[in-house]
């Protein structure tokens, strides 16, 4: 369970975020303007902040800049109605860790929160080897073993597996995968990511064992320890 | 592509052929010719009248001289003639002759050899070494003899010759001046027309923010430019209205639809729903996703068309971009038994937005894979000629009939071949919007069988038109 500060002036959106994060077992606190949000974020410790970009009082970009100036490095998911890539870059440059465009599907928002929380948890000790069940990824030598047997993966397959492994146990959507693994922010269609996952799955699966990569219908994929 | 010396467009090069065709040139030439004919006719008339006057004066002098000689008795006429010649002192200015009734010379220097008519003065051409041009009058004496009186008219003939020369030379100079004036008068309007033409082409290419230059002279070109500008204003306003209505619908419906999707999704995730309900919820969510996808694509087109992305333009190496696209799409192609090939041409770069170009090419490759037959082939290639670059995506599917190649670029138009294949009908519109932002051209061609989609990147050493 994480403590999350929701800074959002639109009541319906705030309610949406609070409900969804609550359903994922997180404790949330809501601030409906920038000044209040900054005050709360400065005074109390949070595991994550969801931050609307356009706010009464100080705006989202300034708020995250102030936080970083005060050496508060809590992960920030910026939420904005401005979808252009330039806006996204501005949001991330100001110190945001991820960027989500309104309107958003609440499960998509929750997934991004999980990815950020996971990344934060992993940061202190950057491992040389990632292990998920029988899958072992040597991040330095760029080698993968399943059940102790080496598996040859292409460059992007390895990056995809690494991303899934870093978020093992959590569902990640196709959109998040395309953004985080390939670095592009448009919708390439469902099939494209599906076939990449299918190829990776084929290389990782072992006879008689369930697949480590689980497809969650309508949502995305999850890497499980098997 | 590195900058190379700027090449001029055909509109910037004024050629004599262009000038010759202008109405100003033709009109000036016509007016000039009328003036020239007038001047020539007037000068010729003055010349003719003067020449006639001079001849008349010569003739009256000749008659006076003949009359004076005729006052002598006929018997002493030969002596009178000789005396007259002697008086003229061999000046070579006056000539006299006396012929008998049978036209045989009795006395004098004129023999009448070149023929004459009584009382009809005529000119005898010069005989170099003997005499100059002579005006000659023949008069019959009462006794039948013929008196010839002649007068050298060299100054008159010289004057006539000079006047003719001046006439020809001035006609030539006037004609040359008219042509020069016609050219000079045509160049300025032609330059303005070339500017108007260039602006019109930019407007036709979709730059509805461009306007025809109005110089404020109030001439016919200013009037035309003003009319076209008002027309473009109106067209732009109507297009803007249609677009803003579409965008507003997409924008306003997106939020409630996204919320609806979240509610359905949450309901779908609850443990206590029947499987039939779950199935229906899945279908509803899938339908909502399709609608949301289309709205997203529509707004994406608007966002791209707003043209705010040019600040992020940079030189993009084409080879790695295409290679990463092929790597991204190869699994999808191979799953359908389609081979995907890339004809590489390293070292080429284009100026643009990397992620937008990646998106445009993704759309084209995705389409090519969708439309290629089982075990078909998709080929990407790059060619470069004289600084221009062409990126080609080719498939061996059913292709697009010639009459549908323009319409498939419009929003929601999918062409007849796409009926069986899922899609929003917005992919090519997104591509067109991205390429338009870059001022690249999209060309659809027949691969017989299949479709060739070609992105034509103009010589980028020429400055791009700034929005």
Count of DSSP strands of chain A: 11
Helix content of chain B: 40-55%
Q: Main sheet of chain B, how many strands, which sense, barrel?
A: 5 strands, antiparallel
What would you call the shape of chain A?
A: elongated
N-to-C terminal Cα separation of chain A, in Å? 24 Å
Strand order of the largest sheet of chain A: 2-1-3-4-5
Cα(first) to Cα(last) distance of chain B is 22 Å
How would you sum up the global shape of chain B? rod-shaped
Strand content of chain B: 5-15%
Computed CA radius of gyration of chain A, to the nearest angstrom: 18 Å
> What is the overall number of helices of chain B?
9
Mean pLDDT of chain B: 83
The description of the largest β-sheet of chain A is: 5 strands, parallel
Spell out the blueprint of helices and strands.
The complex is a heterodimer of chains A (226) and B (467).
Chain A (H helix, E strand, L loop, with lengths): L2 E5 L3 H13 L3 E5 L2 H10 L4 E5 L7 H10 L6 E5 L4 H9 L4 E4 L4 H17 L6 E4 L2 E4 L4 E4 L2 E3 L3 H12 L7 H9 L7 H15 L8 E4 L3 E4 L3
Chain B lengths: L15 H5 L2 H48 L6 H12 L5 E6 L5 E4 L13 E3 L9 E7 L5 E7 L1 H51 L15 H50 L5 H31 L8 E4 H18 L3 E5 L5 E4 L1 H18 L5 E9 L2 E8 L31 H12 L2 E6 L4 E7 L10
Parallel strand pairs in B: 7-9
Antiparallel strand pairs in B: 1-2, 1-5, 3-4, 4-5, 6-8, 9-10, 10-12, 11-12
Pfam family, one (chain A): Trans_reg_C
InterPro entries (chain A): CheY-like_superfamily, OmpR/PhoB-type_DNA-bd, Sig_transdc_resp-reg_receiver, WalR-like, WH-like_DNA-bd_sf
Keywords (chain A): DNA-binding, Phosphoprotein
């Amino acid at each position: 369970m994480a403590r999350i500060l929701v800074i959002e002036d639109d009541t319906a959106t705030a309610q949406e975020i609070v409900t969804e994060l609550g359903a994922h077992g997180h404790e949330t606190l809501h601030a409906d303007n920038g000044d209040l949000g900054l005050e709360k974020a400065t005074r109390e410790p949070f595991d994550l902040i969801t931050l609307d970009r356009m706010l009464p009082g100080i705006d989202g970009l300034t708020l995250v800049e102030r936080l970083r100036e005060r050496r508060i490095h809590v992960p920030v998911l910026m939420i904005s109605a401005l979808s252009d890539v330039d806006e996204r870059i501005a949001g991330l440059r100001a110190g945001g860790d991820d960027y989500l465009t309104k309107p958003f599907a609440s499960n998509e928002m929750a997934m991004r929160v999980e990815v950020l929380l996971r990344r934060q948890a992993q940061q202190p000790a950057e491992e040389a080897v990632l292990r998920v069940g029988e899958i072992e990824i040597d991040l330095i030598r760029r080698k993968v073993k399943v059940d102790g047997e080496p598996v040859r993966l292409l460059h992007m397959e390895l990056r995809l597996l690494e991303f899934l492994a870093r978020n093992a146990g959590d569902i990640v959507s196709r959109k998040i995968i395309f953004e985080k693994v390939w670095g592009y922010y448009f919708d390439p269609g469902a099939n494209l990511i599906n076939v990449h996952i299918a190829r990776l799955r084929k290389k990782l699966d072992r006879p008689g064992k369930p697949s480590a990569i689980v497809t969650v219908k309508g949502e995305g994929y999850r890497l499980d320890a098997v | 592509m590195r900058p190379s010396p700027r090449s001029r467009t055909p509109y910037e090069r004024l050629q004599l052929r262009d000038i010759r065709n202008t109405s100003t040139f033709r009109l000036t030439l016509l007016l000039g010719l009328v003036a020239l004919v007038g001047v020539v006719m007037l000068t010729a008339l003055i010349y003719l009248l003067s020449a006639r006057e001079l001849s008349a004066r010569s003739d009256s002098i000749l008659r006076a001289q003949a009359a004076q000689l005729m006052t002598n008795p006929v018997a002493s006429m030969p002596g009178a003639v000789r005396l007259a010649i002697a008086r003229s002192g061999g000046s070579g200015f006056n000539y006299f002759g006396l012929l008998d009734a049978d036209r045989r010379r009795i006395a004098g220097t004129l023999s009448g050899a070149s023929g004459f008519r009584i009382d009809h003065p005529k000119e005898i051409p010069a005989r170099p070494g003997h005499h100059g041009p002579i005006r000659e009058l023949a008069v019959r004496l009462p006794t039948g003899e013929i008196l010839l009186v002649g007068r050298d008219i060299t100054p008159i003939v010289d004057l006539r010759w000079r006047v003719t020369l001046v006439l020809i030379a001035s006609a030539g100079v006037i004609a040359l001046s008219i042509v020069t004036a016609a050219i000079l008068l045509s160049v300025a309007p032609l330059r303005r027309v070339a500017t108007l033409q260039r602006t019109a082409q930019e407007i036709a290419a979709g730059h509805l923010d461009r306007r025809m230059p109005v110089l404020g002279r109030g001439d016919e070109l200013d009037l035309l430019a003003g009319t076209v500008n008002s027309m473009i204003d109106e067209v732009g306003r109507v297009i803007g209205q249609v677009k803003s209505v579409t965008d507003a619908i997409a924008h306003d419906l997106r939020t409630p639809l996204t919320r609806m999707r979240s509610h359905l999704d949450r309901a779908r995730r609850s443990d206590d729903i029947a499987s039939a309900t779950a199935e229906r919820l899945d279908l509803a969510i899938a339908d909502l996703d399709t609608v949301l996808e289309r709205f997203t694509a529509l707004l994406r087109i608007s966002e791209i068309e707003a043209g705010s992305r040019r600040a992020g333009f940079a030189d993009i190496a084409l080879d790695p971009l295409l290679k990463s696209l092929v790597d991204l799409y190869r699994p999808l192609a191979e799953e359908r038994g389609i081979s995907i090939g890339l004809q590489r041409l390293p070292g080429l770069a284009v100026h643009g937005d990397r992620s937008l170009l990646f998106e445009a090419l993704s759309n084209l490759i995705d389409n090519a894979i969708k439309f290629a037959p089982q075990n078909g082939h998709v080929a990407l290639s790059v060619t470069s000629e004289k600084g221009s670059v062409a990126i080609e995506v080719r498939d061996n599917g059913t292709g697009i009939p010639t009459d549908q190649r323009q319409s498939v670029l419009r929003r929601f138009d999918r062409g007849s071949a796409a009926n069986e294949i899922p899609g929003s009908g917005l992919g090519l519109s997104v591509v067109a919007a991205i390429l338009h932002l870059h001022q690249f051209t999209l060309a659809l061609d027949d691969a017989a069988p299949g479709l060739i989609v070609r992105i034509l990147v103009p010589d980028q050493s020429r400055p791009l038109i700034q929005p």
